[in-house]
Amino acid sequence: MARVLTGIQSSGEPHLGNLLGAILPALELAEQHQESAFFFIADLHSLTSRKDAQSLQKSTYEVAAAWLACGLNTEKDLLYRQSDIPEVTELMWYLACFTPYGQLKKAHAFKEKSKNLGQVNAGLFTYPVLMAADILLYDAEIVPVGKDQKQHLEITRDLASRINHFFNESIFIIPEPHIREQVMTIPGIDGRKMSKTYNNYINVFWDEQRLRKQVFRIVTAPTPLEAPKDPDKCTVFHLYSLVATAEETEELRKKYLNGGFGFKDAKELLFGKILERFKEAREKYRYFIENPKEIDKIFQQSAERAREVAVKVLNRLRKALGFPPR
Ligand code: TRP
Questions:
Q1: Is the shortest distance between the CB of 189 and ligand 1 below 6 Å?
Q2: Residue 251 domain boundaries
């Protein structure tokens, strides 16, 4: 039995890169464990940069709908809003009092942004402490994250051992990071890494018209229709290989090599394959976006279950600190 937990950034609509690189692997990991997995939308973290209520809400529902559409099992696993659990900010304060200033000063995420100190708020500085609270509050054992979060996980583990050591008692479970090392680089329509920053992404949940338009915007070489084409230098082919089966990919490879097959044909195939592969997910996504009350229900039930664990864990620390149990 091991608890899988991860936080999800709520910064805008999840794209194909997020699906293939983070959401689907995390759901698969959850499925491999009997214990309920904890997934939450890190809406408190997003406050460090954005303060717009409308866009926060919009992306919270979009992100939740995407995870649900991709198959999050709500019978077993949890999907809650970080901000629905008041214990997390309380724990953050206790943890902050055990966090050396120097360690936060060295954290990459802060260091990068601190070149422009005028734009740094204390929330950004203490971001890793809130993240540690997210993890330690629920006795998480396995935390799937991208490579960029490695240092944050180290800070979390340090904090947990420091506190356990200080009280000579195992108050916190030391979580194991599950780092996606060979992050599949998923190309965007311009061939660079698919990302919101480059605005080169494909969102498989868009309506057909918009989705098709974006697929047809993929940049390809100016090779004439008749000429053979190098599949390994083509973004359309690369994306196709990520959503199609191995046999289908081999078939397309042959078409490229034979010539007489244009990039338009390839884009049409890719578009059709995306619709096919994500057919069920697209339907579910639509359902949840049109029925946000269903998402609210899941948030509420998950928050209740999460808080049961949170209160127990928090009380272990409160007791050690000399505060009465809640
Ligand atoms: N900081 C993480 C990210 O940017 C999101 C996150 C917040 C998280 N709290 C977490 C991830 C706890 C794992 C565990 O991706």
A1: no
A2: 208-277
